[in-house]
Amino acid sequence: MTRPPRICFSQRAHRAASVLGTAAGALFLLAGPASAHVRVFADGAKEGSPATLRFRVPSEKADATTVRVAVTLPKGIRSTGAPPASGWTGKETPSPEGGTIQVMWTAAAGHELKPDAHRYFDVRVGPLPKKASIAFDVAQTYSDGSVVNWNERQTGTKMPDFPAPVLVLDATAAKAEQTRQEAVAQPTPTAVVSPMPAAAAQEEGADAASWLPWTVAAVLGAGAVVAIRRSTTPNRA
Question: Mapping DSSP to helix (H, G, I), strand (E, B) and coil, where does residue 45 land?
Fold first, then answer.
């Protein structure tokens, strides 16, 4: 009887590595670019105290560079100055009520923000208002003339495509407000057989969203382990 051709160890290991690569790729696609948004940070920021806001701006377009960034301050927040950004020229637009309403940075030639890169832009502000969180509007201009406005507010459970950067001052109050908005956004069922409490349903949905990518990766990874074990086991006649 003719024996089937043997596959050498290197070929089997290569196939196993391909399976592992597929698992990693599936995990990346399902997880999504979680940090690919404009964000704002402020070390030690609290209500009633001045702060330095740091805006992290990523350049997301593959075929264009970021040439201008403009931050519009909400009512009640007054700029006290913008530290220089190397290679960029800053300009402040005064507010009719006093203070600054917008800070804009424009890149000098050769200092544009290239694709997949990011940098920080700082704004010093006076005492922060007594709010749980503060949202900012940021306009990002690319070299092809397109403008991305990061100004969308999240009103339900779905994250908007271009969310406004939000500075959280009171995490507990901010979470309570988000929960309230999510409850308002939930549709009222007309006929329910065995209703599940809204909080439990939301928790179940959140759990599913969090473990789904890892489950897929685990299944694919298990297949890779089996392939590797088979590749190291000698063939018996």
Answer: coil
Backbone angles phi, psi at 146, to 5 degrees: -75, 150
Q: Give DSSP secondary structure letters for 108-170.
A: PTT--B-TT-EEEEEEEESSBPS-SEEE-EEEEEETTS-EEEE-BPP-SSSPPSSBPPEEES-
The span from the CA of 38 to the CA of 109, in Å, is: 23
Q: Which residue has the tokens 């309230």?
A: 180
User: Phi, psi (5° rounding) for residue 57?
Assistant: -115, 115
Question: pTM above the 0.90 mark?
Answer: no
Q: Would you put residue 87 in left (φ > 0), alpha (ψ -120 to 50) or beta?
A: left
Angle formed at CA 60 by CA 57 and CA 64, multiple of 5 degrees: 110
Q: Which two tokens stand for residue 170?
A: 């009171």
Torsions phi, psi for 105 (to 5 deg):
-120, 135
pLDDT in tens, 70-127: 999 998 898 999 999 999 999 999 877 766 789 999 999 999 999 999 999 999 999 9
